[in-house]
Amino acid sequence: MGRTRLTPSSSFIQELTSMPGGELIEKCVACGVCTASCAVASGSQYNPRQVMQKILVGARERVLESEQPWLCKTCHLCEDTCQYGVKLADVFKVVRKLAIREGIVPIAFQQAAQTILTDGWLMKEAYSDFIADERKELGLSSRLSQNKRYTRDVKSKYFDTGG
Ligand code: SF4
Ligand code: SF4
Fold it and tell me: How far is the centre of ligand 1, averaged over its atoms, from the C-alpha of 7 (Å)?
């Protein structure tokens, strides 16, 4: 008995392949080699192969709601091992863009972005006197500074701050 061949959802595939970075999606054979080299593969419900598989079968909602594209640290290790030339980091960038457009960014990543925009860095709450003392003992600077100018420039370029 032959295997059932999955038919990609042409509309979702077309949507992604029409965006810069998504062009090579259809080359994926869902082999899973990329997942073996990905340090964050176990950090979300779907690993890289599973996300690719869901893209190929047109599971649009599941893909856009997945945390994996947000966990991707664009190290490109998966691309070194993929035998089919799929640029996974680019694919995940395209998925993130689409998710942002639809307003479905995972809450943890929204909060992280908000914290950076408010405090200028992610560590303000975690950086306690204890850590400052530890750093001092290790001969490291205890005054970790934040780049306020960078934060201000990002806000004014990408966000409507009402100012
Ligand atoms: S991206 Fe490449 S390595 Fe990963 S599942 Fe697809 S074909 Fe395999
Ligand atoms: S580029 Fe992203 S998906 Fe690929 S190995 Fe690195 S973290 Fe994993």
Answer: 17
Q: Which atom belonging to ligand 2 lies closest to the Cα atom of 71?
A: 7
What is the model's pTM?
A: 0.78
In terms of domains, do 35 and 79 share one? Answer: yes
Tokens of 6: 């999955």
> Which residue matches tokens 């942002």?
100
Q: Are 142 and 119 in the same domain?
A: yes
Binning the chain into helix, strand and coil, the percentages to the nearest 5 are: 55, 0, 45
Is 154 within 8 Å of 117 (Cβ atoms)?
Answer: yes
* Structural domain count, the chain: 2
| Number of Cβ within a 10 Å radius of residue 116 | 17
Q: How far apart are CA 143 and CA 155, in angstroms?
A: 24
CATH number of the domain that residue 88 is part of: 1.10.1060.10
Instruction: Give the tens place of pLDDT for each residue, 11-20.
Output: 999 999 999 9
Say yes or no: 40 and 62 in one domain: yes
